[in-house]
Amino acid sequence: xxxxxxxxxxxxxxxxxxxxxxxxxxxxxxxxxxxxxxxxxxxxxxxxxxxxxxxxxxxxxxxxxxxxxxxxxxxxxxxxxxxxxxxxxxxxxxxxxxxxxxxxxxxxxxxxxxxxxxxxxxxxxxxxxxxxxxxxxxxxxxxxxxxxxxxxxxxxxxxxxxxxxxxxxxxxxxxxxxxxxxxxxxxxxxxxxxxxxxxxxxxxxxxxxxxxxxxxxxxxxxxxxxxxxxxxxxxxxxxxxxxxxxxxxxxxxxxxxxxxxxxxxxxxxxxxxxxxxxxxxxxxxxxxxxxxxxxxxxxxxxxxxxxxxxxxxxxxxxxxxxxxxxxxxxxxxxxxxxxxxxxxxxxxxxxxxxxxxxxxxxxxxxxxxxxxxxxxxxxxxxxxxxxxxxxxxxxxxxxxxxxxxxxxxxxxxxxxxxxxxxxxxxxxxxxxxxxxxxxxxxxxxxxxxxxxxxxxxxxxxxxxxxxxxxxxxxxxxxxxxxxxxxxxxxxxxxxxxxxxxxxxxxxxxxxxxxxxxxxxxxxxxxxxxxxxxxxxxxxxxxxxxxxxxxxxxxxxxxxxxxxxxxxxxxxxxxxxx
Amino acid sequence: xxxxxxxxxxxxxxxxxxxxxxxxxxxxxxxxxxxxxxxxxxxxxxxxxxxxxxxxxxxxxxxxxxxxxxxxxxxxxxxxxxxxxxxxxxxxxxxxxxxxxxxxxxxxxxxxxxxxxxxxxxxxxxxxxxxxxxxxxxxxxxxxxxxxxxxxxxxxxxxxxxxxxxxxxxxxxxxxxxxxxxxxxxxxxxxxxxxxxxxxxxxxxxxxxxxxxxxxxxxxxxxxxxxxxxxxxxxxxxxxxxxxxxxxxxxxxxxxxxxxxxxxxxxxxxxxxxxxxxxxxxxxxxxxxxxxxxxxxx
Lengths: 577, 298
Known about the structure:
The complex is a heterodimer. By secondary structure, chain A is of the alpha/beta class.
């Protein structure tokens, strides 16, 4: 049957190239012009365990994965047991019949097709590594979709470029073997995937988008300590460190990480760090140091279920209020929560601009789902990230004779020079200090300096994009949400609005400073409100209540370590009185 | 490091130690060893022909940290224990600056211990001076990682149960390429050590023994004068012999002062190709072309 949407899922033990084959699938169809969103699920270990890769491809625009699977590839019996119920009516399960004990595979459903391919046997016959069963399954998938194999072969060549011609050749032979096996045996057509015009689109994760924006924004110092799900940003920087002249430092702990970045930034270099909740916890004292010394800093916090070690490889939105309030004392900071890779890119560019102009720390909140899933996007217009460092003095002749590093000004922003200039000798102080940076305990000075640092918010608010409303302004139900819930909500809204249930979404990308006036206007214009977020204590409702007094009673909360599926949001909305 | 005279300085600049004074008078107790270290630093800078704007000093928290207000140079008063990472980041950003990290023994050897170990092995070209008075002065007299076994203080009225950290041995074990001990009662020797430490290409560590006249009545000037002796008095002392230096560091009856160990090893920054041609801060970032990088994401 002709289809414009396919969800493909592969599952098995770690060490079987699940991630790689998933990557090949996503990349192939993204290049062929399909919208692609994928999602990786894996436990916190290196071998064994249960890993899955799910990719949804569509000839039109999509915003999230849904639970329905058209083709499930089971590289072990466990996968069938765990995911069989996700396969939709008329769907397919590809598995290795001869390899799995018959008793382990209960072909219970009569409404789906079980395709047994002797994948392990084929690899033995071909004299190739058993890991390549995933390629056989890929080839079989393409045959089931009645699609041509050529683009996938090209993708394979690209992905395995560094491994040499023999590996590439074996991978392609495995692809062809799987393709042929299905072609030679199936009589009826499975799916006929609609052909789409190929488009040049990027296939990126949220982490990739943040990394690309940081490179464009002129980040020249990146320090980090590996912590899932932020680690890929460190790997990305390390891979381009010489090409783009970015010093990438894997430091001894997160406290060293943030203080090195503060040192580099203080000296005049744009600096960024990335971590997850636990690492950010270690960084919190130093966050205050950046604020008190008025040193620009960009900090990426990619959330995962907590507290403590929590669920390292799963997703949650549990650190928002933490980010908004972190560190002792009171100071201005910005907290951003992009909802998709496009927002990751453009808002990271903005983060660098705002950090440097206002000389404050900027925190970018991601989560495992956004950080590590791939999304196909229109190529980012990188020229939209303009880098102007007019606030930073780089030459002696631009330093006024009355230069004071913490000069009290009308907008609260003091002049700042790179270090090393003859006329710019100054003290940068984590103590409360006077305009010259000398430690100062005088009460009048304390009030003056605190007011000066906070006064920056007046000009800052004009530069912060307000929460955006998606959908009809006269909706019966208004969803309030933030960050990566955006995709599943938009997907749910499409379905709901088609069925004449009018729903809109107010989506926050900036959580702090809080846009009080506009939010109050949205509150007035909403009828029934419901908050949707990936945490237990509904942090967004608390934030809204704290800033406006408005209490949102309806909540759709998911805190199982997994991101929302559109169906869950639809069910939740339908339950609202 | 000697510097070239800049063209835009019209007159001959006769650098004096008082050029490194700020408008604030030091607030340390009379007799505090900090005065001597402060003077020794100024002397060293002057002899090296280093101007205030060419120097960055990162201070920790404590009485020594308050020195941020009294010495004229680019200065950063960091959080307790965090002088070394801040100094490291700044040095990487602008490796042409002469960078020092100055702290007390608690800041450096206690809370900052992890950074200390890694800075030694990193061999980044900065100078770390630790004001070692075996007590926490600014917080009014608690014990410190370098306090003697049995030291009675506000936080250890029954006496410290642990043996003290040996900063010299630690620095040697962690791979520092310049390891020295000074004494605030010998400013001339200290000034020379600091000068050589700054000149040394690599991580230079100086543990400076000093009394705390207010909170440590045990380790006084007299106590130290009895015990210290200069390594220079030892015939044919080989500064490049690590084992020898380590043995010396374990001496307790008498305390050797001077340079225990000095070798030349690759400096961290020299391994950074990113700053081959120019300091990181001088790289142009106004319109970075992303097309080639984007191509990897199709």
